[in-house]
Specification:
Layout lengths: L1 E7 L3 H10 L6 E4 L16 E2 L10 H20 L3 E2 L3 E5 L2 H17 L5 E4 H7 L9 E5 L3 E3 L1 H14 L3 E3 L4 E7 L2 E6 L2 E10 L5 H5 L9 E11 L8 E4 L9 E4 L5 E4 L3 E2 L10 H14 L8 E12 L10 E6 L2 E5 L5 H18 L25 H10 L6 E3 L4 E2 H8 L8 H8 L12 H12 L23
């Protein structure tokens, strides 16, 4: 089949682009080399909606961050995604830090960030009583927010699919060539024809773009590590500090699920597969976290994780920016989209569509487009009337599986029967938070493997954590 638009990359930018394109009468396909949505940078971020005072003033990164931040309010309301504008404190320990804050305020104003205000250390501690007594000043930015990154990308994809977009996973684009007015994408699963291509493939964006233009950007992986703390979060605001030495922008952030993240680090990585955490990274995060909150109990850390972001290397730091451009005829690329890419994504999608329309993509409105998505409530969070109805439909709702997160077997079976079901344990985790609570899957994982084995008709040894080659069960002690 020939599609009007093929989007390569099923992260938040690709899924939001698909949703926006479904407002028009178009055939749209989203392909990804991984087995699920949001398997790249989208999967491993802090869930912070940045206000926009970090990026260079007037840059695409800065403007898209500030404007995208505001666009998330309606987006999350439409898509039933938990979010909250909790505000942030950008704190200083020394006069140099105050100078740094003033610099950030200047950048924020150029990017259109509203209501930033300098406050004293005492005022900051009134807002966050556990902050260090050595903090002498802070900048309060009320538009900083938090969101569930998993639900944001999942609900966006499901809404796109409900409006007609198609998704195809485990599909790696190996070559692209011109074919008439459009393109032929040669993949490991055959040839796909498209009139237009949108390249939102993250780590692979520069490699994909080379089929239509000479490479001018060198993009290399950078790893960011995080620590996950148990509930409840000791902070209500996102806490940054004016950097001293090489503290790499590590922050503390409450999550929409009630706990706290600390991170990230920022180290060069050898490849995009290097998502391991390191003692060096953990020590760094622990140092900064204790500096900000001296009474923080590091014994409440329940997990660590790392994500890889695509970093443009061959441009001076003060000139780096997001790149969204018409790479070739009917071919739009987004390159170097790292933090705050999730925040900026709604505005960046507007840029992508502007390029597509400039290249001639038709703009007939789809009058049947429905922007609203409502998630099915978890059984244990449903009202008693709905619980009785669900139990009558399927007694499996009465079998509690993940006690930390309140997930039942019925919830799992419902997700497996959804339009974009998971294909491994991590996919289930993204949808239901199974294994993300206090025990980190120590109790529920064996039962989940049994359920997936039964439903998928596969032996436990073929139930993977993330993809082929990642079994949780290595073998059997007896037949």
């Amino acid at each position: 089949m020939k599609y009007d638009v093929v989007i390569v990359g099923a992260g938040i930018l690709g899924c939001l682009t698909a949703r926006e394109l479904m407002k028009y009468q178009l055939d749209v396909l989203v392909v990804d080399k991984e087995s699920d949505i949001g398997e790249g940078a989208t999967k491993a971020n802090s869930g912070v909606l940045y206000a926009g005072f970090h990026p260079r003033g007037g840059s695409l990164k800065g403007i898209s961050c500030a404007r995208g931040n505001r666009m998330h309010r309606q987006l999350c309301r439409d898509l039933d995604v938990p979010m909250d504008y909790v505000g942030s404190l950008f704190v200083a320990f020394h006069q140099e830090g105050i100078d740094h804050i003033q610099e950030k305020i200047g950048k924020g104003r150029k990017n259109g960030v509203p209501d930033m205000k300098m406050i004293s250390g005492d005022e900051a501690r009134n807002m966050e009583p556990r902050l260090s007594s050595e903090i002498i000043a802070a900048m309060h930015a009320p538009t900083t927010g938090i969101v569930s990154p998993f639900k944001l990308v999942l609900h966006t994809a499901l809404n796109s699919a409900a409006n007609g977009a198609r998704f195809q996973f485990d599909t790696e684009v190996e070559h692209i060539e011109a074919a008439g007015e459009g393109y032929a994408l040669h993949t490991n699963r055959g040839i796909i024809h498209a009139d237009y291509i949108v390249n939102t493939s993250g780590e692979g964006a520069a490699e994909l773009e080379r089929f239509v233009r000479s490479r001018d950007l060198v993009i290399k992986p950078k790893r960011g590590e995080y620590l996950v703390f148990d509930c409840p979060s000791p902070v209500k605001h996102v806490i940054y500090q004016a950097q001293e030495h090489d503290e790499k922008g590590t922050l503390l952030a409450p999550t929409v699920d009630g706990n706290m993240l600390a991170g990230p680090t920022s180290y060069k990585a050898k490849s995009y597969k290097c998502t391991e955490t390191t003692q060096k990274g953990i020590d760094h995060i622990s140092y900064v976290a204790k500096k900000l909150l001296p009474g923080l109990d590091l014994g409440s850390v329940i997990a660590s994780f790392a994500g890889i972001r695509a970093n443009i290397e061959n441009v001076p730091k003060e000139e780096k920016d997001f790149v969204v451009r018409l790479s070739g005829r009917r071919f739009v690329s987004a390159l170097g989209i790292k933090n705050p890419g999730m925040t900026a994504s709604p505005y960046l999608v507007e840029k992508i569509l502007a390029h597509l329309f400039e290249a001639g993509l038709r703009q007939e409105r789809n009058q049947a487009f429905d922007p609203i998505y409502r998630a099915k409530p978890l059984f244990l969070k449903a009202d008693p009337k709905l619980q009785a109805k669900l139990l009558k439909e399927n007694p499996a709702y009465g079998n509690a599986v993940c006690r930390c997160e309140g997930i039942t077997e019925g919830d799992i079976l419902s997700v497996l029967d959804s339009p974009l079901p998971p294909h491994n344990l991590n996919g289930l985790k993204k949808r239901l938070r199974t294994g993300m609570g206090r025990c980190q899957g120590g109790f529920c994982t064996p039962e989940i493997i049994d359920i997936l084995s039964r439903e998928w008709g596969k032996p436990p040894e073929q139930i993977f954590k993330s993809g082929p080659g990642s079994p949780m069960v290595k073998g059997r002690l007896r037949p």
